[in-house]
Amino acid sequence: MYSELVMEHFRNPRNIGVIENADGVGEVGNPQCGDMMRITIKVKDDILEDIKFQTLGCGAAVATSSMVTEMAKGKKLDEAMDITNQAVAEALGGLPPAKMHCSNLAADGLQAAIKDYRARHKA
Amino acid sequence: MDRVVYMDHASTTPTDPEVVAVMLPWMSEQFGNPSTMYSLGLRGAKVVQNARESIAHTINADPEEIYFTSGGTEADNWAILGVADAHSKKGRHLITSTIEHHAVLESMEYLEKRGCEITRVPVDGGGLIDPEEVRRALRPDTVLVSIMYANNEIGTIEPIADIGRITREAGVLFHVDAVQAAGKLPLDVEELGVDMLSMSAHKFYGPKGVGLMYLRKRTRVTPLLHGGGQERGRRAGTTNVPGIVGMAKALELADNRMAEDAVREAALRDRLWEGLSAGIEAIHLNGDPVRRLPGNLNVRLDGIEGESMVLMLDMEGICVSSGSACTTGSLEPSHVLLAIGIPAEHAHGSLRATLGRSTTTEDVDHFIKVFPPIVDRLRQMSPIWCENCVCKQRN
């Protein structure tokens, strides 16, 4: 059902955990829907220096969470904001049609974290 | 890992080698169509008649009351749509429960969209139906009551004989989806007081693609499939000779070893539950602790989602299923778990293991050994585990 790359990210998710004293926190999804994600970020000079996630959900939810952290790490905030759910799914070699909605969590979570950072650091 | 621990017998079972052996000749040299006039075909007709008699004997029916189908889904659809159509002058009200298989529930929804009224009787926290609820739901225009014998997810065994007495007294037809019960529980259509009953061979170590409907004599049901005179003109389609022969053999074998299998599987299931509940915190049993199928275990785990557990267990060679939305093919978790009062966020964290003939003590112990680290790993990844987890509540 899942591509080998999706399973690889599910088996060995990158950047799992929580950053203490994070500069931004993004939380999307809802346990009632069966999937939820929390992303914490560390920002330095407008660059995503570190990023970690926690995800409750299916194989696709975990794999897209892992992939989005990998895609975003080291990027400028504006570039990271431009990562779409579609791009995350494509980077994983696609997802089964019934699972496309799971990929919505990942980029949404990242964007929520960046927005949180920007709200906290308004000049 | 090469080892495979198959614990999804409610989904399907391996065909018994003895069953395969009796089927094979009817796919090769004895390939004739039973609806022909020459001896090659007529030998098939004879063996199908023997199968019909053997199955009828097992469930205490007449051979003329057995109608072969492509499986449980067809039998369920046929019973519901066929009765609704044939009895539409009497009324358009049907009764079922909230925890039926989708083959029943979606047939009911199909009728509902076309003007029928459906009453879905509720279940208690263990999944049990109160027969009095069925009595209260009966109306002068009720044409059918359809209730499952045993639930496919949580294994709850319903009080079919009690419901059968009520429907008989009221003169209303009673259909029972016995797909999960066949081969595991005694089926006597007279004792149960049923008018129609569905079965599927692959659930009791028979082949896939064959099932049957028991249809009491003089019960009016409109055919679902049209096109040939097979099954006394009530179910068209070339007779599935190897499938039917295999199903009859599988039912005979299951009937002979029923009591022995039940004791063994229940003991293994209890060992599994004891082992898991001793080694994992915040794990809960779903369904009735006593009135359930012997090999059925259904649990939920706080803070994690079902599909991720299924995928991780698969890496250890263990085949199980879940009632989470991700595994039901929709955005909703299992309707059965919701019906027994489990909130959606917990239903997503459910896991079903159904044991069978091949299950060994080693299989159970392997599961007990590999599952706790998987749970730990998924909980470490979970954003909700440390908010509502027992570790916090305990402090």
Structural overview:
The complex is a heterodimer of chains A (123) and B (395). Chain A has 123 residues and is of the alpha+beta class. Chain A has one domain: Sufe protein. Chain: A (Alpha-Beta Complex), CATH 3.90.1010.10. Helix content of chain A is 41%, strand content 22%. Chain A has a 3-stranded antiparallel sheet with strand order 1-2-3. The longest helix of chain A is centred in the last third of the chain and has 17 residues. The relative contact order of chain A is 0.23. By secondary structure, chain B is α/β, with parallel strands linked by helices. Chain B folds into 2 domains: 146 residues, Aspartate Aminotransferase, domain 1; 240 residues, 3-Layer(aba) Sandwich (Aspartate Aminotransferase, domain 2), CATH 3.40.640.10. A 7-stranded mixed sheet of chain B has the order 2-8-7-6-5-3-4, with helices on both faces. Chain B starts with a strand and ends with a helix. Classes of the chains: A alpha+beta (123), B alpha/beta (395).
How are helices and strands ordered from N to C of chain B? EHHEHEHEHEHEHEEHHHEEHEHHHEHHH
Q: How many separate structural domains of chain B?
A: 2
* Biggest sheet details of chain A: 3 strands, antiparallel
Largest interface: chains, residues each:
A-B, 27 and 25 residues
Counting copies of identical and different chains, the oligomeric state is: heterodimer
Overall average pLDDT of chain B: 95
Structural class of chain B, by secondary structure, is alpha/beta
Tell me the helix content of chain A.
40-55%
| Radius of gyration of chain B, whole Å | 22 Å
Question: What summary fits the major beta sheet of chain B?
Answer: 7 strands, mixed
Annotated CATH homologous superfamily of the largest domain in chain B = Type I PLP-dependent aspartate aminotransferase-like (Major domain)
